[in-house]
Amino acid sequence: MSAPRTPHRLDVQRILRYLRGTQEVGLLFPAYGYATLEAYSDADYAGCQDTRRSTSGWCVKIGRSFISWRCKKQDRVSKSSIEAEYRSMSEVASEIEWLRRLLAELGVQCPSPIRLHVGNTSAIRIATNPVLHDRTKHIEVHIHYVRQLVTEGIVELTYISSEDQPADLLTKAVSTTRHWFLAHKLMLR
């Protein structure tokens, strides 16, 4: 702020162009519908060219409205796509539990189990199988929080294809046309 340079001006111009181009875009929170939580989880395996760390992306909606989302580079390198997906599932599972408790405090009861859509069937199998295999020992114990929520009946894991996965918008570069298509498809659900 004290000594702006050309790169700073260019960044501000880019932000202003973005804001001008998205004036008609907004979030819709309809007053009708049920308080049903639903979540989507995705990961971009080894997507960072420099560090080969994966990117987690997830979003949670209540009824037809998205209320929480996040896109973040994972804090360590995953050894497999399953591990990257599992880390993303663990993050959104924590968010689901927090939102469920918050809504309960506000007097809104959400039906259980809360559906978590995941695009990796192997990650779903690991989360629902109580036996820890040698090939999964490298995944830290705290990530098995997902398994605990599944066992307790709080979360239900379901497969979702990449073309229907809204969390793809947070983890992968998509064309403007695909972005528009996914956004409108989500509004119709």
TrEMBL record:
Name used for this protein in its record: Uncharacterized protein
Organism: Linum trigynum
Taxonomy, superkingdom: Eukaryota
